[in-house]
Write a structure and sequence with these properties.
200 residues; alpha/beta; seven-stranded mixed β-sheet; 34% helix
Length: 200
Amino acid sequence: MKIVLATSNLGKVKEIKELLKDHEIYALSEILTPFEIVEDGTSFKDNALIKSRAVFEALRKKGLENEFISLSDDSGISVEALGFAPGIYSARYSGANATDASNRAKLIANLDALNLDRASAFYTACIAVSSNLGDFTVHGFMHGTVICQECGSNGFGYDSLFIPKGFTHTLGELDDAAKLKISHRSKGLELIKYVLKGLE
């Protein structure tokens, strides 16, 4: 089964290819001209479906709907002490021109403002698939703690600030193999395999 990912984020593409090795995986830019998708949903599920549906509709317009399905993921981190922010706004937490570094800086500043050097947090990933047979979603979660000091450079997003439950190092300090076993996206992708098998 050929799958087009609703992302050009190289970190996500690499991770998804690792976890769905039995399938042909293509980044959005390999099959379609990348286009802007407005993520105006109110949940991870809403936004994941917005992306997968938009990409599948673009495939349909090119007559590729029988050759490909689309897969998207919407994920983010929720910090309990911050009212579960940034949540669905994780990628753009620090504004319109947000970068991973500016998002981490804002998270640290907001925890500092509460005199906290760590706080309970969890990652959510919603995986959505759109196909000729309909739309499907699953969720994966990873619980742990955010800290106010960056540690490690492996990964992207908030990885250098997040210590998974049962570990003493951040995701940014763990190797790829260890991260793949525990990540929210990994858990979601394990579940979506059942959907993919059904579609086949």
